[in-house]
């Protein structure tokens, strides 16, 4: 079973910030939070990852709560091309086989 | 572009046949993970190869097997194909020797079993 819980779908207006939540209440101390997105049957695209500090890159920002039990991916200015399924994953290099367990993800619809 | 390539792009087989899918990892990576993604679902972990050895396996039967070569490219072999094996097969490469071993995915191979 996936170790994360995400809403099934979300809508966002083009140009506005998209805030995608993720719950990972059973996260272990050495597990990182990763976000990927998948656009219509392409391979998942890496977006960002973090351990306990907030992170920002050219694609997005990741906000992780102090207790690390949840996080939010922020796309600051969503475009139509950001319409995709977004996966929140927790994983650790110490997990046997580095197994990465994907849930069903959040289907984000960006509307004009 | 991640630098991870997969071949073929699409493949059609019939039940009972065998199939081999290929993955070339990104330069500098020594680990390849394989995933199966059925329509409308998230990717499911099949197994991982690290420096030519299987390093972990998901809940898939033995007819799913793999190889990793000295150049760290990899193959996924599926014997005795079943209809339910129809899916998008993804490989992801990473460098397990790093503290943060981010996985980068290829474009996938779409397998249809008739």
Please describe what this structure looks like.
The complex is a heterodimer of chains A (112) and B (114). Chain A has a five-stranded mixed sheet, with no helix packed on it. In chain A, strands 2-7-6-5 form a four-stranded antiparallel sheet, with no helix packed on it. Chain A starts with 8 loop residues before the first strand and ends with a strand. In chain A, β3 (32-38) and β4 (45-50) form a beta hairpin. Chain A is globular, with a radius of gyration of 13 Å. Helices cover 0% and strands 45% of the residues of chain A. By secondary structure, chain A is mainly β. Chain B has no helices and eleven strands. Chain B has strands at 5-7, 10-13, 19-24, 31-37, 44-50, 53-57, 64-68, 74-78, 87-94, 104-105, 109-113. Chain B is mostly beta strands. Chain B starts with a strand and ends with a strand. At the A-B interface, β3 and β4 of A face β4, β5, β6, β9 and β10 of B.
Averaged pLDDT of chain B? 94
Overall body shape of chain B: globular
User: Given the helix and strand composition of chain A, which structural class is it?
Assistant: mainly beta
Strand order, main sheet of chain A: write it out: 1-9-8-3-4
Determine Rg of chain B (CA atoms, Å). 13 Å
Counted by DSSP, the helix tally of chain A is 0
Query: Overall 3D geometry of chain A?
Result: globular
Percent helix of chain A, as a range, is: under 10%
**Beta-strand level of the residues of chain A, as a percent range?**
35-45%
Structural class of chain B: mainly beta
């Amino acid at each position: 079973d996936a170790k994360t819980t995400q809403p099934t779908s979300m809508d966002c207006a083009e140009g506005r910030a998209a805030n995608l939540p993720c719950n990972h209440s059973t996260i272990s101390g050495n597990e990182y939070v990763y976000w990927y997105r998948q656009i219509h049957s392409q391979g998942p695209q890496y977006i960002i990852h973090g351990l306990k500090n907030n992170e920002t890159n050219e694609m997005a920002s990741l906000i992780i709560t102090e207790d690390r039990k949840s996080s939010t991916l922020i796309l600051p200015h969503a475009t139509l091309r950001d319409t995709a399924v977004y996966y929140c994953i927790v994983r650790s290099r110490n997990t046997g086989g580095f197994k990465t367990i994907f849930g069903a993800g959040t289907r984000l619809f960006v509307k004009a | 572009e991640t630098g991870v390539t997969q071949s073929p792009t699409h493949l059609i087989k019939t039940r009972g046949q065998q199939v081999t899918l290929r993955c070339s990892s990104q330069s500098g990576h020594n680990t390849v993970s394989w995933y199966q993604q059925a329509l409308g679902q998230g990717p499911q972990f099949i197994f991982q190869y690290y420096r030519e050895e299987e390093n972990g396996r998901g809940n898939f039967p033995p007819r799913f097997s793999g190889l990793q070569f000295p150049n760290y490219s990899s193959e996924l072999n599926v014997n005795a194909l079943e209809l339910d094996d129809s899916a998008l097969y993804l490989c992801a490469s990473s460098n397990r020797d790093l503290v943060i071993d981010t996985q980068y995915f290829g474009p996938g191979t779409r397998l249809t079993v008739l």
